[in-house]
Design brief:
alpha/beta, 11 strands, elongated
Length: about 325
Amino acid sequence: MSAAPGRIATAELTSVIDRDRPLTVEFSEYVSATALLMEELGVTPLGAPRGWRRAVTSALGARDVAVLRPFVNSRPHELPSCMCILPHRTTTGGASLEDDLERIVGIPPDMFAAQLPANGIWDEVVRNPGRWLHDFARAVRRACKGMREPWTHAAGVFDREAERLGVAAVHGTERELIAARFAAPMWKLEGAAPAGADLRPRLGMVPMLGGLDAAHAWIVEGELTHIAYPLSDIWRLLDGEAPPPAALEGLLGSQRALILRRLDRPIAAGKVAEALLAVPSAASHHIAILERAGLVAREREGRRVIVRRTVRGTELLGLYDQS
């Protein structure tokens, strides 16, 4: 699957992930707030619930909205790279909002102005880039104040995601997790290393509040450094449900987890479709994703295609189902 301009396909994403590269979990209010602001005030539909979008603008004044206009009216991959603050890694996994905003305010105005696209949207900002950065930081701070309730409510879901990522890291299934979670191309943001950012050889996984199309990968000087993504479990918060425990379904999705469990012995691909109560094309889609992740293998026997679980698939299944 090829990605559109400004996007990166899952195959390209997983191809650059080294199995020996450890994952680190990072949480950032800035990432969630700016994605919600872009959707609520701007031109990029990302699929976030209306309640979250309204919450993030609830504490904004008219001046804040005016300041945010050039930012929210840009497509994600068109933003000045120095504004796409990477979570700065801490021992707790939490990035301080104030630290992130200090880095925004500390961007050299000349460097910032040089990165602004000449598309007319940023013309007012060019006149006084340093002042605009201060005003932007103030607006984001207020947006995060409005986002406080859904952010706090999501804490349990974030904790479960950290648990899942920890299991994947211990078991060496980082590629499997990413291949299973991100079937569609995501936004691709590229730029130079931000001042002071810790880009040691780890891959930052950044769970966020937002719509399903808010996922984005950060490529810094040609290297994948972060993947920011909304969690499917967060949608349960809309119904007031408690976050579920970490499970194989959380890593692979319910349909692919069912396939893996059914493969105690090799079976024909047609039988997989029957087990899923799905059409053959849907079953083939799920099998292909599991195969790319190294969890199943397909072999032709005469006129039939046989699907079997690999050793890695069996080990992964045992790790979850025994916990």
